[in-house]
Structure formats: C-alpha cells, structure tokens
Amino acid sequence: MRINVSKDILLKALQQVLKAVPANQRIPILAGVHIQALTNELIVTASNSSMTILYRIPGEDSSLTVQRIGEVVVPARYFCEIIRKSDSGMITLEVDSSLRLSISSEHTQIRLCGMDAVDYPAIHPAENHAALKLAVNNQLLKDSILQVAGAASSSEHRPVLTGVSFQYRNHRLQLTATNGVRLASRTIDVEHDAEMERHIIVPGRNLVEAVKIMDGEDRTTEVEVTNRHIRFTANHIMVQSALIEGEYPSLHHVIPHTFISEITIGTAPLLKAVERTTVLASESIIRLETTADTLRLLSQTAEIGDIEDEVSILEKNGEDFTISLNGKYVADILHGTSSDFIRLRFTGKMSPMVIHPLNDLSSTFFLITPVRTAK
User: Fold this and answer.
1) Taking a C-beta distance cutoff of 8 angstroms, is the pair 206, 200 a contact?
2) Which residues contact 248 (CB under 8 A, 6 or more apart)?
3) Is Electron transport there in the keyword field (predicted)?
4) pLDDT at residue 124 is higher than 90
5) Residues 74-118: tens digit of each pLDDT
C-alpha cells in the first residue's frame, strides 16, 4: 500500500472512528485502526465488540492519491497522535511486506509496526442484505435519539434496558427507552415502500455516537437493519452497532391514560428554575407545588440551606397538586425538547408525571416516577 493523503482529512477521519476504541482496550487488534487503500478511496475503520465506525475518504480531488492498494492495522491512538502532530499538507503512508507502516511528511519519517488486517473484524458481506432500509432526515433522527436515549439504563443488571427500542410499524418508527424510573418515547413518520414490522433493541451508548455523524438539517441518514446489526450512514461515515438480544418489556400498562390535573408552562423558565432548585436538592429531589397560576419549586439540604422558586403557569386544568421528582431527570427532559412550551400532567401523587412538548403532543412523551418523601 502507498498513498498520499491530506493531513487534515486523515485526522478528521481518525478523530471520528476512534470513538469506537475504548481507552482500556486489551485486545491488540481492537486497539488498532484499519487503514485500507482501494483504487480510488481510503477507508479508515475502528471497531470493538459492539460498535464499528467507518470513514470513507474519496479520491475525488488532490486530497488523496492512491499509488498502490493494500491494507494494514496500526495502533490507533499512537497513529492518531502522530498524524495530529505532523506538519500541515500531504502525508505519505506506505506499508512494506513486513506490515511496517511508514509515515512521511515534509521533514519527518516515522515507522509503526502493523498487524495483519485479515484478523480485523469485518463487516460481513453475508449481512449486506438489509431486512429493513430507511432514509430519515438527519435533524429529525438526531433530535429523536437525543430525546430518548438519555432515559436508557446504565446498569447491566437488565441488559435490554441499556438499549433503545426501535419499533417500525405502519410507516412509523417509535423509539422508546426506560431505566425503570423514567421513560421517554418518540414516534416519527418514515417513508418505506413495503408494509412490514420490525422490532430491535440498540445499545443507547452506541446511538449517542451515531448521532454525531448526523450533520446537515436537509440531508438524510440511511438506516439499515440486518439480523444482527443496525447501520447508520451519512456524510461518508458509517456507524454499525450490534443489537441487544432479548425481549423489550411491554410498557403499555405503565403509561397513564387519564390525569387529575395538567398545566402548560414555558420550557425555558421552568428549566432555569429546575436547575436552580436542584443545586440544594438533597439526592436531587425537588418538590413541585401548584397554586392557581404559579408552579412553586422547593428543595433543601439539611444544615446547608433551602431554595424556593416560582414559574408562572400559562394554562391550568384540574386541581392543585404536589409531587416530588428527581430534578436532574426533569432538567434532562427540558434540555432535550425544542418546544417553547411543555405540558405537565399529574396522574396521582405516586403515579408517573407525564411531560409532553406542546408542539408534539401526539408523538412525544416522557414519564418520571415520583419520589416518596415525608411531605
């Protein structure tokens, strides 16, 4: 293999794919980055047992010249650091018969010991036939994932809850996640030629990485689902994630369908009040109390102090209520919504609080289980 490639574009590719290489990776081949030169393209790949990120550098202009095809795996973080500190301009990469990679720039020549690419995890051709293929607007998919993925569990006690449920049915894609205390769900319309159903579970942490490739509001991300993986492709980058095996719990019975009271309130002022109140909230627990036209937020930490804040209610239906919630969870929800106003639905002192963005009442909702307190 021998190529000339622009430092800037190679560094950009490395910075993207290295998100798939954990800092404490103990398997040498998985601590490496796969460099593959094809006739008119350079493919840079990093992978672990759960996620693969692939970046394609096309040979469309003077930023890449392939003189000889080939491939090699080299230590990822050393290689990235070398490229980052190289002189600006073009870099020459050349692999010899002993798999040693020479990195040459204007004044420097560095050699890295490489590994045989045959041993590197491959994107299996047998899985190239997708059971489901969708094209979704970048911004829509990005917003949906960010709104939902934060509710996934971080505990491996129930692996399925560390993932986000993707359920495609009747041209609609529903994303749902829960950690047993909070739940987030959003449903988006997706065009697809065939009438079919598909239900998978995707690791939440991999989805957060996939979001980072979804740039450009008017562009689309191609989503492909195979028997074992889901792939997101956009802007020369592909993120492939393994699926979580298991049955996602049915959540229909935990979603309240009636409510005692509801209020409509401005998202920004409520977020600021929640963040202020959570500062002195013991174990992040804040109390919400309504009056005729005001939502009061209260918190305290013994021997430190207490906070009381107020936000004006724009509209109210039903009786006054008091409920204690995790303030950090409430703030996470408010951060993730683009709606200027939200609706809070009270379903009982020890029943989940339902939160809807006002501009998306029918397809997006969040649940937070209340916390039992002395008051």
Assistant:
1) no
2) 160, 163, 165, 176, 199, 201
3) no
4) no
5) 999 999 999 999 999 999 999 999 999 999 988 899 999 999 999
State the first-to-last Cα distance of the chain, in angstroms, to the nearest integer.
Answer: 71
Alpha carbons 166 and 182: distance in angstroms, whole number:
18
CATH 1.10.260.40 correct for 255-368: no
Nearest Cα residue to 132 out of 190, 216, 212, 48: 190
pLDDT by residue (tens digit) across 60-73? 778 999 999 999 99
152, exposed or middle or buried, with CB in 10 Å at 0-12, 13-18, 19+? buried
Pick the CATH number of 128-242 from 3.10.150.10, 3.30.365.10, 3.40.50.2000, 3.40.50.720: 3.10.150.10
Q: Which residue has the tokens 């590719």?
A: 13
Residue 124, SS3? Answer: coil
**Could you give the maximum distance between any two Cα atoms of the chain, in Å?**
79
Alpha-carbon gap, residue 292 to 201, rounded angstroms:
43
